[in-house]
Amino acid sequence: MFERSAARILVAMRTSATNSSLFARPRAIPARSSVLSVRRLRSVLTFLSLVTGHWLLVIGSLQAAQPYTPVHPDPELEPWRWRVYHELDGLGLKCVTEDSEGHLWFGSGAHRYDGSTWTMFSFGEGLTGSQVMRLTAAPNGDVYAGTDTGIHRFANGVWSKLFPEDADIGV
Fold this sequence. Notes:
With 171 residues, the protein is an alpha+beta fold. It has two domains: 48 residues; 80 residues, Thrombin, subunit H (Beta Barrel). The protein is 25% helix and 25% strand. The strands form three sheets. Strands 3-4-5-6 form a four-stranded antiparallel beta sheet, with no helix packed on it. A hairpin with a 2-residue loop joins strand 8 and strand 9. Helix 1 crosses helix 2. The protein is rod-shaped, with a radius of gyration of 46 Å. 10% of the residues are buried.
């Protein structure tokens, strides 16, 4: 039934060799060739639907790019890289620095850690004030500490006051 109605609908435009006009008289396609044309049309449409369907499946399976997740976590967050120093618990740690020899200096008092032993410097050993607020290390190995009463330097194993001098305190 479809083939007969398609045969009636399909019309070929044909120009005669003598008539070069753009407007040619439409002519009905014979029934036999119209059946072949309809079959060809069906096969072309089937092929196109298969190809189109295949591409729709491919496009439908595409997703937005996912953010990169590294295989190894951030190395700075690995727990074995961090260490808890229980010797500093409750001391009110204010600052930390590392000197040129690799010693860690912690400022609440003056505490030096060389990787195996702790050295605690008390305020009676050349440091004045109640707390070390700032620490910094010089390239020559000296360590400078800022307390609430002045600036001190640790050089050659001894703390000495740099500023203010004792004479300036009474002014």
